[in-house]
Amino acid sequence: MAKLHVVHVITRLLRAGSEENVIATCLGQAALGHRVTLVFGREHDPAYLDTLSDRISLECVKSLVHPVDPIHDIRAVREMMRLFRALAPDIVHTHQSKAGIVGRLAAYRAKVPGIVHGVHIAPFLNVGPSKRYLYLTAERMMARLTDAFVDVSGGMRETYLAAGIGTAANHHVVYSGMPLKAFTEAAPPQNWRELAGVAADAPKPPIVLMLAALEPRKRHCELIRVFGRIVDRFPEIRLLCAGEGPALPDVEAAIRRAGLEKNVRLLGFHPEPGRLVALADLCLLTSMREGLPRVVVQALAGGKPVIVTRVAGIEEIVEHGVSGLITDPDDLEDTARAILDVMADPVLYQKLRDGAKARDVSGWSSEALVEGTEKVYATLADRRATATA
């Protein structure tokens, strides 16, 4: 395939799963010789920029904001139209809900030859009726302008098709890849006692790890409300929460209300999550909606069983009762029961751990992500060549 100029557009450039996916894609495409530009909105982590600026071009559009804001949104469309016309890319590849709407509209009006949207999550699931209607209407309208969708799971593909967004022909499943060796070969951090709040002469307690941004849809507060039941049975257990985000004050307050300051530890951003997985006995995710959670892949890559709420496509990575347990997303008491079942039954725990170690996660490598995205772009090129022949 000829070398392309690809512009990726993302609403927020923070330390979370979709951002990691986008950055891995950008760096992989740049390594293949493509010219790559990353456009991001007002919310961004400057530390990311320092690691990227020598390999890809960066453009900040400050009017691109996460909340629905008609004034900023119209301004963002206009600014990106001007930017796309100046850059003249072959493909604009959008990510996240707001950038997906604003970016695709701007790319269409700027007459960009190829418009691709990455489906990392279905924004119309598990929201109120007004938001659901808004998201569905916007996604269906933008689907008419979209040449291809890149879905992080088959579950996301089926969710979008069932909602009448896109067609079977233009939805392509490409799993969200990552550097797997950072998890398969990791050792626990040397300062694990400090992280877990354990005395120097105390044995290692049972450790449950939740790698997740601190935002409402991850449901840390709801988890903390039921975690007391687990502490009653296992007083020394630790729940390590690694991640940062806007819900931090609410999560801290929930911990204080539950009296779980000793048992629930907020680690903030950790630069080596693979080491945390190596430390943990069990990994956990309680999201109300996801695409296909990268942290679940990371846990299995590290050979640790997972307990995860049922989200679209989760069965593509977790086999219930083999490598982990899938729980009712509407009932976190079910998650609490699952944790108790696993921690109280050494035979069940070993079975799940053996299943986690045996799970082949090679389809979620960074290389597979870049290769799969290349195939989608090649399909677009072939389609255009056929249309002009």
UniProtKB/TrEMBL annotation:
It comes from the Bacteria. Keywords: Transferase. It holds the Pfam family Glyco_trans_4_4. Residues 203-358 form the Glycosyl transferase family domain. InterPro entries: Glyco_trans_1, Glyco_trans_4-like_N. SUPFAM superfamilies: UDP-Glycosyltransferase/glycogen phosphorylase. Residues 26-175 form the Glycosyltransferase subfamily 4-like N-terminal domain. Coiled coil: none annotated. GO terms for molecular function: glycosyltransferase activity. This is Glycosyltransferase involved in cell wall biosynthesis. The lineage of its organism: Bacteria, Pseudomonadati, Pseudomonadota, Alphaproteobacteria, Rhodobacterales.
